[in-house]
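Lab meeting minutes (informal)
Scribe: AK
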Amino acid sequence: MATNNIFVNLPVKDLEKTKEFFSKIGFEFNPQFTNEQAACMVISENIYAMLLVEEFFHSFIQSTKKEIVDATRHAEVIVALSADSRDEVNELVNRALEAGATPYNEPVDHGFMYAWSFQDLDGHLWEILYMDRATVQQ
C-alpha cells in the first residue's frame, strides 16, 4: 500500500491561540483548509496537522462513541518530527517553550540520535529529534 500524505488530526480547545502558538514556533497554515473550526498546519510537503476545535473533532469520532482524551492528563500519541541537526532540535523546542509550551522531557542524547520533547497548549506531546544516519549501523 502506498500513501502520499499524512494528516494528523488533533483536538484543540482554542483554535486561535493554537494557531498563534504554532505560528510562533515557525509553522504556516494552508488557508484553503483553515476556517473557524479547523486549521491545516503545514509540517512539510506531505505532512499536515489538522488542528480541530473539539466539537468539530468529535463529529469525526461520533460513530465510535469514544470520548476525546484529555491530553493534559493522558497520552494519546507522541508526534515525532525529525530535524536536520541537534541545533535545530534545540531551536524549535526553545521557540515552543517561549511560546507557551511546557517541557515534557529533558533532552535525550543517544549519540546517534538526539531528541527533546514538549507539550503544546492542549497537552499534545511533540518530540523533535535528530538522527545522524551516518552512525546508524546498516
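Next up, CB showed the second protein from the same session:
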Amino acid sequence: MMERAVVGVWFLVCVFLIYVGWDLYAPYSYEPLGPKPYPIILLALMALGAMVLVVRNPGSVRPVNKALLLKRAVCVLAMVAYGLTIEWLGFLIASFLLAWVLAVFYGGSVWKGGLAALVISVFAYVAFEYVLDVPLPLGLLDPFFS
C-alpha cells in the first residue's frame, strides 16, 4: 500500500511539472521546437510509468536483497563517474568505459562486453555528432580529430 502512495505522489509531481514546463520559453534555440519537448516527454514517460506501477498487481513486487542493492549502487556510481569524466575523457572514451564496465558487471565476457561497448559508443557518437548535429566533447581524443 505504501508503494502505491509513493508512486501516486510521484505521478502528481510529474503532472505538476508538465504543467509548469508547458510554458517554458527560451529566447534562442538551436532546434525548431526549442527546449520544451525534451522535459515534457521525459515527464510524460515517468507519469506513464507511475500509472503502470499504481495499476499493476501488488504481488509482483520482488523483495530487495543485498545483491540487488549492490548492483544498483554500482550502476549509480558508474553513471556518476561517467558524468564527472565525460569532459576530460571525452564522449567516446567515457561512454566506452561505462558500457564496458556495466556489461562485464552484469555477466558479459570481457571481450564481448568490450566489443559491444565500442559499437555502442561509436554509434552514439556518430548519431549525436553527425545525424542530430549535437557537438560532443572529445576530451583526450581532441588532438586526433582536430
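CB comment: The first helix runs from residue 2 to 21.
No objections, moving on.
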